[in-house]
Amino acid sequence: MRIASSVTASVQQTQIRDRNYEKNIESKQKEENIVSLTDKSHADRIAQIKDDIKNGIYKIDLAATSEKMAHNLLNL
Prior knowledge:
The protein is mainly alpha-helical.
């Protein structure tokens, strides 16, 4: 009887470990998909800005740029 309960406990632990491993794999895959989408949208945004600069239509928001520079310099 003791052996059967030990075997049952071992099987249950293995099943739990397998489920946790599968969840971890799924979570990592979702993170990779999100990162690749973010990278693509970032690359698209950079390409758009380059085109705007080349065509002379890119506008810089001086107030926002100045504010960010000041915050960075003051370590805020």
